[in-house]
Write a structure and sequence with these properties.
Layout: E1 5-10, E2 13-27, E3 30-37, H1 57-65
Antiparallel strand pairs: 1-2, 2-3
Amino acid sequence: MKNSEHLVVQEGFKVIKMKTRAARLYGANDVRLEEFELRPITSGELLIKIISDSVCMSTHKTIIQGAKHLRVPENVSEHPV
């Protein structure tokens, strides 16, 4: 296991709790690099490792506008994306 993972035994099953890092939007011009724990993967879900990503102009516009952007939830400050 990696350093950011830890093993928890729950009701006879092995549950691996993992942490990840992500740039998360909290509001207009408020993007934070954070490490946080992922919720457990459930049946029918996949965990995919992203190797690289890029920022396009629509992402830039989202960061500038924050909750005023049509595709950003109004409660983004409480529930960052």
